[in-house]
Amino acid sequence: MIKTAKNSLVLLFFAGLFFQSCNRNDIYATKIKTLDSLSGAVNAHAKEIDKVDTIILAKAILRFDQYKQFIQQNVTDTVTKSEADFIQQFYTSGKSLEDFEVNRQSLKARTSLINSQLEKLKSDAKNNLLPEEKIIEFTDLEKKEANVLIEASNKQQQLFYTNLQEFKTALKGVEYLIKARNNGQLPTVVKDSLSL
Hints:
This protein is mainly α. The protein is built from 4 helices and no strands. Helix 2 (54-74) packs antiparallel against helix 3 and helix 2 crosses helix 4 (132-181). The protein is rod-shaped and about 75 Å long.
């Protein structure tokens, strides 16, 4: 009877270890799926940022720089309220487009860093290299960072399209102002076949 009780106790001990091991593997498998999903979401938003028309962006920034220089050098007298409004909108939206280009590069670098961290954490989870609590903690941390990145990507994209539209609107008024002060001509450096 004592031997049977001992065997039952040993059997219960190993069954507990087995179920704990199964539960542990479930946690690792769940976290691996979470990390895969995060990686997919981060990469989807990175592709959206990459879809921004960089040719239009580069041309807008070039035009902003050239027109801004012309205005600074040649518009020294009083301007009308509507001209001042166009110039202000032109400066604000143009500067925002320049900022977007810098932020876009930062977002791409941050995406690369987060992707490498997600891959490392997935590898650690697959190989059970970290204790459960660390896998849970690090996965939650990466989830927060991925969400911050996704929100920033969305915000930057919205700002880009809004500022590009405002830039196009202001551009008409600024070009009119430049032509009025430059014998009906725009600076020749800026003339190109692609319109904004």
